[in-house]
């Protein structure tokens, strides 16, 4: 009998998965009996404390407060009922000794609950029925992730995935996720959409939809003989995005020499304004990097000349 049970166990596919994220339904103070307030029976703090040791017993229907819910979902954001990570990310374990050789391995592909049925059908080699008892069946949503069970490097599903609950919405595709939190009772057009690159930021901490732009500008210095159509005394700047030029301009307003008593600020001008603006005229975006590169025709000839020039500054 023991041998038969062991053999049956090897043929059995076991799935372990949880409900969605930690609940926010306990509110800021939690409940010993969450059903009480729904039935016009308030639960003041003194009563909560008096019944503390009853939690988990037959006379309670407990729900912990927001603080514990946040701790349970850390480092993911928000709670059950939301479409941020704290409301939708769940542990999922598969064991099938006869068919799955991997033991204790992790998979990082994106999988949605609707992908489970097509995966099981794929694993056992059965096509979904087109009709049951003479009734036509709707196409099964989701996409099989069976390939990732055997291959940790297999890509995630190709199709986008939409999910929604209580007006909160989310859309995943190719490792990116757009998500909106919907405050109850407010117009949907007031919702703020956020964008996260889950492949690099699984806990959704860096909102890439907040319009921060890092720009690298390379100054192109003209030769002593100006090119045709170039105005003498003007400098040309080229804007590069991912190394590709996307625009250029000529201007006289630029630094040709750095003067020690004037200084050089990045993103603000703490000295006297040099044009029609009010100092400090701070840049409102985010400067991700500033690089000063010396081109060959900007370098000084000889160490002595260089020291002399620095001494003048």
Looking at this protein, list some descriptive labels:
313 residues; alpha+beta; 4-stranded antiparallel β-sheet; 3-stranded antiparallel β-sheet; 11 strands
Please give a structural write-up:
The protein has a domain at 213-313. It starts with a helix and ends with a helix. The chain is α+β, with helices and mostly antiparallel strands and 313 residues long. The strands form four sheets. Strands 5-6-7-8 form a four-stranded antiparallel beta sheet, with no helix packed on it. It has a three-stranded antiparallel beta sheet with strand order 9-10-11, with no helix packed on it. It has eight helices and eleven strands.
Globular, elongated, flat, extended or rod-shaped: what is the shape? extended
Record field, number of beta strands: 11
Q: Strand-and-helix sequence, N→C?
A: HEHHHHEHEEHEEEEEEEH
Strand order of the largest sheet: 5-6-7-8
**In percent terms, what proportion of residues is strand?**
15-25%
Question: Terminal Cα separation, in Å?
Answer: 92 Å
Low-confidence stretches: 222-227
Structural class: alpha+beta
Major beta sheet summary: 4 strands, antiparallel
Multimeric organization? single chain
What helical percentage do the residues reach? Answer: 10-25%
Rg over alpha carbons? 31 Å
Describe the SSE topology:
Layout: H1 2-11, E1 14-17, H2 35-38, H3 45-50, H4 66-73, H5 85-88, E2 92-95, H6 116-124, E3 131-132, E4 135-136, H7 146-150, E5 161-165, E6 168-173, E7 176-181, E8 192-197, E9 216-220, E10 235-241, E11 244-251, H8 303-312
Antiparallel strand pairs: 1-2, 3-4, 5-6, 6-7, 7-8, 9-10, 10-11
